[in-house]
Design goal:
The structure holds two protein chains of two kinds.
Chain A lengths: L14 H4 L2 H7 L1 H18 L1 H4 L30 H36 L1 H16 L2 H12 L3 H27 L3 H8 L4 H38 L10 H8 L8 H28 L1 H6 L1
Helix pairs in contact in A: 2-3, 3-5, 3-12, 5-6, 5-8, 5-10, 5-12, 6-8, 7-8, 8-10, 9-10, 10-11, 10-12, 11-12
Chain B lengths: L1 H27 L5 H6 L5 H11 L5 H13 L13 H36 L4 H15 L2 H15 L15 H35 L2 H8 L4 H12 L1 H10 L1 H14 L5 H10 L3 H29 L6
Helix pairs in contact in B: 1-4, 1-14, 5-6, 5-8, 5-14, 6-8, 7-8, 7-12, 8-11, 8-12, 11-14, 12-13, 13-14
Classes of the chains: A mainly alpha, B mainly alpha.
Chain lengths: 293, 313
């Protein structure tokens, strides 16, 4: 996140409108590949019940089975179908990733815009954000989750709290850059009320940076969810998620590597898709930075 | 300069105070009775009352905070509920593996990351650059524990070249210590190599486009000398910054890596503390880790003037 160029240089308008999908693929291959892969993963996750068996079914006589025509990705230590669990696990990763990114963008936007406009709020809010940023993400999330016990809701709340400071700082820096621009002053002089100016003139200028940021947030949220579930404090064990699948199968790595690698590879591919989309969006919105990077 | 250092110190203290308030409030403002949370699901009302008394939870919040802050500042992080030992003692017993892992990771990732970054910037847009950039993106995308299990499977289980997991204290010999730490270090370093390589590349490219680099080339400076003497020195500040900021990731990574490789470090201590709801231990580790993060970034800020004499405050 620290590498993200928080530049407010918006792309020339109309570039996206002009281009169809093939043109997007040629001009911004990363957006196309990353976005396409992500869309595919979302469809596969939503359609999981159509092609995978029940991920909770136990086959006690078929424990730790290797890959076969019957169980494509073999079975785990309790005789559960790794393929089915991996397919359903995608739902958790994507659900947590996308909702956490959305809620973080909302809280970050709210804090950032107000902080950019109100000095008094700014000095208090930014000190709070500095403090929150100083507590390592996983530790803070661990502590938050440990208070209420594992669950998807608290996981999203914990990820949102730990990721809000960075987003709020980003929005604030964009707002500070924009608020002195002539068009904002003109709007205010012309008698527009502040809330309207914020909504019509300030908010749109934060969108490019926020779109890149939401991809970063989504990737980070998926990683954090998987990490916490791996540590045993994320998604409860009865719901299959990639993180807790790896956690429960890790002791069987020597005899059933597929039960660890299948969710692991899916996790990596998903985060890669989101990261590619994020890199692509950065190129799209900030072509100057691309040439340097 | 003195004024700047003073200002920086004051803001550091302010940030630490904020961290303290958070960590204090975390347990107190959580939904439900903190004493009941600590006591667990099988506690009797007497046990809960006992814990509440012990933690001073019957007093008003500001009084509690004053007591708590006072004991933290005098170096007392409290007593572990689960083991009955002082938290500071528990943490210091676990420090060696964690610090070993962190230092080895930093050494490995700075050497490889900076080298890769320079190589990529040297022929920007070329095959090396594109390969390294692609690898960096991949490095960002594979979670620590997935990397760890891949390495364990291929380098320990299949080939038996390296031990699967565990830790050897350094006073049992440098060799065994290092051998045990090779896989964990590689696991943890991957993200930092990617991060530092990316930052180095960006920072080097910026410097390489400066006029004085063209002058150096014109007067016949070798490309080695150009990259390492002229460019790298000037590209140092952003690289140092990213190393400081990435310390927070390092701590998060350590927690997971220690679990993967079964290393008895501070990370394992926290995870065990969370499973036991040993809140004083969690608090203690949070405070120390955040304190380290803040101090390291303070040190990085102050080091700017050393590596770049042009920066004056």
């Amino acid at each position: 996140m620290s590498l993200l160029s928080a530049s407010a240089e918006a792309a020339p308008k109309g570039r996206l409108q002009l281009s169809g999908l093939p043109r997007l693929a040629r001009r911004h291959p990363l957006v196309f590949i990353g976005g396409g892969l992500l869309a595919l993963l979302i469809i596969l996750a939503l359609a999981a019940p159509l092609y995978a068996s029940d991920p909770l079914n136990l086959y006690p006589f078929k424990r730790l089975q290797p890959l076969s025509a019957e169980m494509w990705l073999g079975s785990d230590n309790l005789g559960r179908d790794v393929f089915a669990r991996t397919a359903f696990g995608a739902r958790i990763s994507l659900l947590v990733g996308l909702t956490s990114a959305a809620s973080t963008v909302l809280t970050g936007l709210l804090v950032g815009i107000i902080a950019g406009y109100n000095r008094r709020f700014d000095s208090i809010a930014m000190r709070i954000m500095d403090g929150l940023m100083s507590i390592p993400t996983i530790l803070l999330a661990l502590a938050l989750v440990s208070l209420t016990g594992a669950g998807i809701g608290i996981l999203i709340v914990a990820i949102t709290i730990t990721h809000t400071p960075g987003t709020a700082r980003l929005v604030r820096s964009v707002v500070l850059g924009v608020r002195e621009r002539p068009y904002v002053e003109a709007a205010l002089c012309g008698g527009a009320r502040l809330p309207k100016v914020l909504w019509r003139h300030i908010l749109p200028s934060t969108i490019p940076a926020l779109m890149i940021q939401s991809a970063n947030l989504c990737a980070s949220a998926i990683m954090t969810e998987a990490g916490l579930s791996f540590l045993g404090v994320g998604v409860p064990p009865e719901i299959p998620s990639w993180g807790n699948m790896i956690s429960s199968s890790r002791l069987y790595l020597p005899i059933a590597p597929w039960s660890v690698f299948a969710p692991g590879i899916c996790l990596a591919v998903t985060v890669l898709a989101v990261n590619l989309l994020g890199d692509g969006l950065r190129d799209l919105f900030d072509p100057r930075a691309t040439r340097r990077r | 300069m003195a004024l700047y250092v003073l200002r920086r110190l004051v803001s550091t203290i302010a940030v630490m105070a904020m961290v303290g308030i958070f960590i204090f409030l975390l347990l107190r403002l959580a939904p439900g009775d903190p004493a009941a949370i600590i006591a667990g699901d099988t506690a009797t009302p007497e046990m809960i009352a006992n814990i509440r008394e012990k933690l001073g939870l019957n007093e008003p919040l500001p009084v509690q905070f004053a007591h708590w802050a006072h004991s933290i500042l005098s170096g007392n992080l409290g007593i572990s509920i689960f083991t009955g030992r002082p938290v500071l003692e528990l943490i210091s017993q676990r420090l060696e593996p964690t610090i070993s892992l962190a230092i080895l990771t930093m050494i490995l990732s700075v050497t490889i990351g900076v080298t890769f970054g320079i190589l990529a910037a040297w022929r920007a847009g070329g095959l090396v650059d594109r390969t390294l950039t692609a690898l960096a993106t991949l490095g960002f995308s594979v979670p620590v524990f997935v990397v760890g299990f891949f390495l364990i499977y291929f380098f320990a289980i299949r080939t038996r070249w390296l031990p699967v997991q565990g830790y050897q204290p350094i006073d049992h010999g440098f060799g065994p210590w290092l051998v045990q730490l090779i896989l964990p270090t590689m696991t943890l370093a991957l993200v930092y190599v990617a991060l530092i390589a990316r930052m180095t590349r960006a920072s080097m490219l910026e410097v390489l486009s400066e006029d004085y680099m063209r002058t150096a080339a014109a007067k016949g400076v070798s490309s080695y000398s150009m990259l390492f003497h002229h460019a790298l020195k000037n590209a140092g500040v952003p690289i140092l910054t990213v190393i400081g900021l990435s310390f927070a990731y390092l701590i998060s990574g350590v927690v997971i890596t220690e679990t993967v490789f079964n290393i008895p470090g501070v990370g394992r201590l926290v995870v065990d503390a969370i499973n036991n709801r040993d809140y004083p231990v969690i608090q203690g580790v949070l405070i120390l880790a955040s304190g380290m993060y803040v101090l390291i970034n303070l040190a990085v800020d102050l080091a700017y003037t050393l590596i770049d004499p042009r920066i004056r405050y």
